[in-house]
Design brief:
about 200 residues; mainly alpha; about 85% helix
């Protein structure tokens, strides 16, 4: 949803719209909320599907005897940290869901948009808290693969370079999204709610 248009309509002298204009505004707000929820579900489903595939492959390798969990536990720990982060995101999302309060449906929709923004900011903090926890098993896993003879020195350097680039891109994307999208959106929604309460 374009917040500039919403703010202009909100602050205009015609902020006492007729029933048709109110219905249109509500439809736009609900559309934005549904689109955000679909995006959240998709962004959660992609890593869950990916982690399921990686976990199945790791389980198959262990069962086939290709991997010794006693000597290559770093990769399993890395999988465990990833699953723990996904669980934390799921729990944070479930805890953030609240029953709608009484009041205007416009206010409820704005509060729902702000709650969705708050969930996204909580996920951002979960990402930052999990990053150092993830780095240790990742480095251990790379060293263990080298120690058991599954990688060469060159492979080890390549893996570390790929992991470093992927983590750097993830850090950059999350920081950019937080400061360019989530924080400005939070301020705008809080401002609209404050004005609505006046």
């Amino acid at each position: 949803m374009e917040f500039e248009r919403l703010e202009q309509a909100w602050r205009s002298q015609a902020n006492t719209p007729d029933q048709q204009a109110q219905a249109y505004l509500m439809e736009q707000l609900m559309h934005a909320l549904k689109a955000r929820r679909r995006g959240e579900i998709l962004l959660f489903a992609i890593p869950v599907a990916t982690m399921s595939v990686f976990t199945a492959l790791a389980g198959q390798a262990v069962l086939a005897g290709q991997t010794d969990p006693g000597r290559e536990w770093g990769a399993l720990a890395m999988l465990g940290v990833c699953w723990a982060v996904l669980a934390a995101v799921l729990v944070a999302g479930l805890l953030a869901r609240r029953a709608p309060r009484d009041g205007s449906s416009v206010r409820q929709t704005l509060e729902a948009l702000l709650a969705a923004n708050r969930r996204a900011r909580v996920n951002y903090r979960i990402f930052w808290m999990s990053l150092p926890v993830f780095l240790v098993p990742m480095l251990v896993a790379v060293v263990q693969l080298h120690d058991v003879g599954k990688t060469t020195d060159r492979n080890m350097v390549q893996m570390l370079a790929v992991f470093g680039l992927a983590l750097g891109a993830s850090v950059g994307w999350n920081a950019l999204r937080f400061f360019r999208v989530l924080k400005p959106e939070q301020r705008r929604l809080e401002g609209l709610l404050a004005e609505y309460g006046e």
